[in-house]
Amino acid sequence: NQLRALPLNMTVLNNGAVDQTNATANFTVDRAGTTVLDQDQTVANIPAGVTSRIFVNPDFVPPTVAGTYDCSYTITSSVGDATTTDNAGTSSFKVDEFIYARDGGTASSYEDGDGAGGPYFLCNGFHIAQEAELYSVDVALRSGGSPSPIGNTIIGTLQGADLETTLAETLEHEIVATD
């Protein structure tokens, strides 16, 4: 199984005039109506005007059950908050028997690998422990945002254990609006 810990986290801004002490960050993950994680994380202090990133601790490893997992994030404080409508967020991820993917964020600019126009490698790497026949490479693209991915060229590659040797690669694909 390729499942690994997901660094579930929330970024919070104390946009008030006083420090928020004894805050509680809650991470909840549900799949098909079943709660697989419901964890409170105590945050001792979020100073006024400061943005903090809070991680679930210990790391969360999803169950090896295929499906869509819905995450909800909330934060509360014993100090009080004049605007509580912005103290929650949601996201989701999927577990699939034949797809392993992990997104550490989105590309925020058009970088190149060597600074001289060379290729920029962005990947979801995983180790194949047993011989297996691979059928495809799936790519998920964000929609909207800036900069737009439209017009960029992508290539899927299968690298050897040394991560330098290319064993196979797909044809080039230029991203279009309908992808």
What is the topological layout?
Elements: E1 9-13, E2 20-31, E3 34-46, E4 51-55, E5 67-76, E6 88-95, E7 153-154, E8 157-159, E9 166-169, E10 173-174
Antiparallel strand pairs: 1-4, 2-3, 2-5, 5-6, 7-10, 8-9
Plain-language structure description:
The protein has 179 residues and is mostly beta strands. The strands form 4 sheets. Strands 3-2-5-6 form a 4-stranded antiparallel β-sheet, with no helix packed on it. A two-stranded antiparallel sheet has the order 1-4. A hairpin with a 2-residue loop joins β2 and β3. About 6% of the residues have low confidence.
Strand order of the largest sheet: 3-2-5-6
Q: What's the rounded overall pLDDT mean?
A: 79
**Series of H and E elements:** EEEEEEEEEE
Structural class: mainly beta
Number of strands: 10
Q: Approximately what portion of the residues adopt beta-strand conformation?
A: 35-45%
Number of helices: 0
Largest sheet: 4 strands, antiparallel
C-alpha Rg, in Å? 20 Å
Compact description:
With about 180 residues, the protein is mainly beta. Helix content is about 0%, strand content about 35%. Mean pLDDT is about 80; it is low at about 105-115.
